[in-house]
Amino acid sequence: MISIILTHFNKGLLLNRTIESLQPWDDIVHEIIVVDDHSTDPSWSQNSTYIVQTYPKIKIIQNTENKGPAVRLNQGGFAATGDYLFFMDSDDVLAPNRLQLFLTAMKNQSADLCYGKKVKTHDLNEIQKHTTATWESSTNALHYILKNNIMQMCVMCSKELFLKAGGCNEKIFIQDESLALNLGKYSQKIISTDLDCVFVILDEEETTRVRGENRLSRHLEQQHYDMFFTIDDFLQNYPNIDQENKTLLIKKAFSTYWKSIKNTPQQRFSDLLIYLASKVSPLKIWDKNHQHLIEYFEKLDHVRKIRT
């Protein structure tokens, strides 16, 4: 019933921990698709064999090129055969029984999109402590996502919604924001819970050594680059979205620009003025400075650029 999609690149045994947290023996788990992005870890061949032999529902899609998590997430999503798709990072931990919780709530509330809370913790015992969920819902999913800044990898959607939305933007390396926006654009109803669901485990020796070296969230320049072009592409793809959502997107783009440039040698007083003005007249300032922002982000050196 539920297809779980994990994009994977050099996560080592953290992937195994993630798979265990998904309760792969549960009847509602139809399949777990691991899309490997051409891992270079020498242990991957042996571990992938172990995973397939240990967990009957595992399907591994092996690739011979590294194209980034956005491309690989779509690859897994389009290959999935379940009625619902659940996406999660392949080095995080899902709290017990969350898939059943999501599925039951989506069916009871006739929702096609569901988000759970993703949190960082230093204590593995925290995972067992959170059990009671309260839910919010909205039939204006895009607006709800933007207002609540829901852009994280703890999402379940119907397969139908994923296909309608076209997955995430494959011109973007990091997929989180584009997946949220595209699903939100086409969703009929979103539900969201404040219950802690996915845990980013910090301070573990293995995560300090392995995950710390391979954690995209540490690469702020890449995050800023992908966030800006996610928004810019979305605005170009959907020029007729309502003005309130357009304003929220543009404000987020300017905020991303300021976060990116404020502590760099390129930063000038005029950049601060642009950022402050965007808070007052975002649409006007966007029209005036749009090309300037594009040129700034296109000149960033230390980012993975896969735009065509």
UniProtKB/TrEMBL annotation:
Matching InterPro entries: Glyco_trans_2-like, Nucleotide-diphossugar_trans
Record keywords: Transferase
GO function terms (MF aspect): hexosyltransferase activity
Domain Glycosyltransferase 2-like intervals: 3-155
Keyword Protein biosynthesis: no
Cited PANTHER family: GLYCOSYLTRANSFERASE (PTHR22916), UDP-GLCNAC:BETAGAL BETA-1,3-N-ACETYLGLUCOSAMINYLTRANSFERASE-LIKE PROTEIN 1 (PTHR22916:SF3)
Annotated protein name in UniProt: Glycosyl transferase family 2
Organism: Acinetobacter kyonggiensis
